[in-house]
Design brief:
Order of helices and strands: EEHEEH
Strand order of the largest sheet: 1-2
Strand content: 5-15%
Number of strands: 4
Radius of gyration: 15 Å
């Protein structure tokens, strides 16, 4: 929800998907349009999003 209870819609410039949460839009763009995988430097595992890589790094040694 935006200010004063209004939702702020954000439209993806690449495909037209409309989302009301900027964080969800960021994730959408990473997964749907970012062809580059995020790679763990320690073990070489690949992930679709930087968030998945960040979570993986907590347990990767």
């Amino acid at each position: 929800m935006g200010l004063f209870g209004k939702s702020i819609e954000t439209k993806c410039k690449k495909c037209g998907t409309v989302l009301t949460d900027p964080e969800r839009m960021k994730k959408h763009q990473e997964v749907a349009h970012n062809k580059k995988k995020e790679k763990c430097r320690a073990c070489g595992s690949e992930f679709d999003t930087s968030e998945e890589l960040r979570k993986h790094k907590k347990d990767c040694k």
